[in-house]
Amino acid sequence: MHNPESLHPPGALSRRGALECMTWAGTGLLWSLGGGLPRALALPRALAAEGSPAPFTFLQISDSHVGFNKPANPDASGTLREAVAQIRQLPEKPAFIIHTGDISHLSKDQEFDDADQILRDTGVPLFFVPGEHDLLDDEQGRSYRDRFGRGTRGAGWYSFDQQGVHFIGLVNVVDLKAGGLGNLGADQLEWLERDVAGLSSSTPVVVFAHIPLWTVYPEWGWGTQDGARVLACLRRFGSVTVLNGHIHQIIQKVEGSVTFHTARSTAFPQPAPGTAPSPGPMKVPAGALRTLLGITRVNVIRGSEPLAIIDTPLAG
Amino acid sequence: MSTPHPLPRRSPRWLAAAVTVPILTLATGQGALASERTGTDPAIIRIDNFTFGPETLTVAPGTTVTWVNGDDIPHTVVAQNKLFRSKTLDTDDRYSFTFETAGEYAYFCSLHPHMTGKVVVTKPTD
Ligand SMILES: [Cu+2]
Fold it and tell me: Keyword annotations for this protein (chain B) (predicted)?
């Protein structure tokens, strides 16, 4: 693994440089939601940076696929445990963890039980949205909702507020249409419109869902057919961060005030779009697997001087 | 805004792979393909690399069609008209359905809806 300090001397970390860090940073990303322009830093670099501590930090974890035991990773529970151990060692305890789905591989009770037990060891509250692998029980999601989706609406969507940031968990893995992509549906979109109607446009918004809400690669189903409706709904907000999973690799895009980001899996990597015959699990040399798995760390900083904030190293 | 991961272009190799998917059924008509299967052939549709193969299968009424999942990822087989719906098929799992009535049966994978296929049930021409 590269040494981030050698690539980015202190004080010289440009926005572009920060984003480039994401291509190789092993397991951690640090996010700022300041001045409407979220920025990412490689975690080791950011932790070393000077500055005032952030108001709060949360983590994103995704695609743990507990129960998966195929050649790409014979022990998905083991790598999830490693991720949890890594979280426990963070110098700053996160306020909570967002899991962006595919908790289990086949929605079996044992898989959900194991995942629950492992994730509990983080010692912080967890928020979930389901992936398509979490809705495979005979009642198509009942098991997920009973365990991880209590108090949510519909197939498991909800919102909450944390220190001035509005968080929205969406479900785009239900009632998928033949030939289509991820799907939110009219009920959920109407709820979303009502949910954000009373919010000031200066409220930072974090939206999370399993399948990317923007079109990453439709040939592999990597997108959400009515995802544009979500973005239309959030267009007036100064800072919107969209966190997704599903594709088991980091891809980021920024469009105006909206930053899109997908997290790595803790179970197995998938190929970059179009670089393989299918998006199936990618078998890599044993030593390389853990460089392709990981967690995402999100650090929320509120500021009132956007330009100053953009050039200020993030606290950590 | 520059993205750190520009999407790679689809390589010509995969484009080539994509166009070899047999669209033959549509081009040649159902009777021609149906006659390629003899009465004793098992009607198998393989699921490999997130693709149903053959994408279109033509069978005679009364034929039992079996889907076999060869991927390391689970898939399902769901009729668009809701006539049949498999349980989740893990690696090497199978699902069978017997088609009694002539017609076209479009189906897809409910987990990966970009995966679509069709079974055409028609009396063999002789
Ligand atoms: Cu599938």
Answer: Copper, Metal-binding, Signal
Structural domain that includes position B48? 13-121
Residue B110 has which token pair? 């409910």
A187-213 pLDDT tens trace: 999 999 999 999 999 998 999 999 999
Alpha-carbon Rg of chain B, whole angstroms? 17
* Chain B residues with CB-CB distance to A72 below 8 A: 72
> Does B3 reside within a domain?
no
pTM above 0.80, yes or no: no
Q: For residue B109, how far is its CA from the centre of ligand 1 (angstroms)? A: 5
Q: What is the CATH number of the domain that holds B45?
A: 2.60.40.420
Put simply, the answer to whether B114 touches A105 (Cβ < 8 Å) is: no
CB B10: neighbour CB atoms within 10 A?
14
Whether residue B4 lies inside any domain: the answer is no
Q: Is residue B63 part of a domain?
A: yes
Q: Nearest chain B residue to A215 by CA: give it.
A: B7
pLDDT, tens digit (0-9, with 9 covering 90-100), for A270-283: 999 999 999 999 99
Report CB contact under 8 Å: A273, B80. Answer: no
Degrees, nearest 5: CA angle A240-A35-B2: 65
